[in-house]
């Protein structure tokens, strides 16, 4: 199984723990960090709707809390067969810890680079 397929499998597993009683749209995300570890997260909704957290943001928080700082690849799993690409906000959140070539695998197994999904982006270098 390829690295990206393994990540997608991990995203599908964690997706089962998603808390999405309002949208019923469960999402899981799995990150391979440069330290070789895999960090997983799921969406966590809230009765005050805007307070919900996306799966990608959840996985990034887990990575950062463990000391990880670089996303080598990320996979995102939604309902079977549907292609879930990261929302706009999550593309920017991924950007903070990634580079143009960072691999993003969607639920239908398609692979993108971050630069495909967030071209001409603003990032940490702009503030140096
Ligand atoms: N969602 C994610 O977790 N990641 C995405 O990239 C797209 C959307 C979640 C947010 C919300 O809990 C549900 O999917 C429906 O929008």
What would you note in describing this structure?
It is built from four helices and five strands, in the order αββαβαββα. The protein has a five-stranded mixed sheet with strand order 2-1-3-4-5. With 128 residues, it is an alpha+beta fold. It is 28% helix and 19% strand. The protein has helices at 3-15, 55-65, 88-95, 114-117; strands at 28-33, 38-42, 71-77, 103-105, 111-113. The mean pLDDT is 96. The structure holds tetrahydrodeoxyuridine (THU). Tetrahydrodeoxyuridine is lined by residues 20, 23, 25, 27, 43, 45, 52, 54-56, 84, 86-87, 90.
Please name the CATH architecture: 3-Layer(aba) Sandwich
What portion of the residues fall into strands of 2 or more residues? 15-25%
Helix content: 25-40%
Beginning-to-end CA distance, first to last residue: 40 Å
Q: Give the neighbour order of strands across the main sheet.
A: 2-1-3-4-5
Small ligands present: tetrahydrodeoxyuridine
């Amino acid at each position: 199984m390829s690295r990206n397929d393994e990540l997608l499998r991990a995203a599908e597993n964690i997706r089962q723990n998603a808390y999405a009683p309002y949208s019923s749209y469960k999402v899981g995300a799995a990150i391979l960090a440069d330290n070789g570890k895999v960090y997983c997260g799921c969406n966590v909704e809230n009765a005050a709707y805007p307070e919900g957290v996306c799966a990608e943001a959840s996985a990034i928080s887990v990575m950062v809390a463990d000391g990880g700082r670089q996303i080598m690849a990320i996979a995102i799993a939604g309902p079977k067969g549907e292609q879930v690409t990261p929302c706009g906000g999550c593309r920017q959140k991924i950007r903070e810890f990634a580079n143009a070539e960072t691999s993003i695998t969607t639920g239908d197994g398609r692979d993108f680079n971050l630069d495909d999904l967030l071209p001409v982006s603003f990032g940490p270098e702009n503030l140096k």
